[in-house]
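Q: Sequence in, structure out?
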Amino acid sequence: MSMHYEDYMRQVVQPMRLELTNGGFKELVSGQEVTEYMENAAGTTLVVVNSVCGCAAGLARPSAIISLQHDAKPDHLVTVFAGQDKEATAKMREYFGGIEPSSPSMAVLKGKEVVHFIPREQIEDRTVEDIVLNLTTAYDTHCK
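A: Exactly. Output:
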């Protein structure tokens, strides 16, 4: 790939990154950052596997942010960006066990264990309200 293309893509996805980081998510951009976070994970974490697709923009990112207005919520918020930070995304998916790769997607973890997972198929063609309800139901179960 040319440097021009890579520079262009960094500029294009920057607002997509900022939407989550401005919402309180810590961005993990390398495999090493994912390993360091996950090996020290305590409490509950919401992991958003970000993406450039329309369902990430219109559904996944807004739902993740809105869900945090709920009384029960995860202790930590992290994100990796599929298709952009490939090493970080691949490393995070290793912690998801046998779950098929999906982007966008969201996982609620207790320590390193995935206790709730929302794949792309449960994001596409849903409403923000449906996805928020999915997340907040998981928070009520796992984040109290």
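The chain has five helices and five strands.
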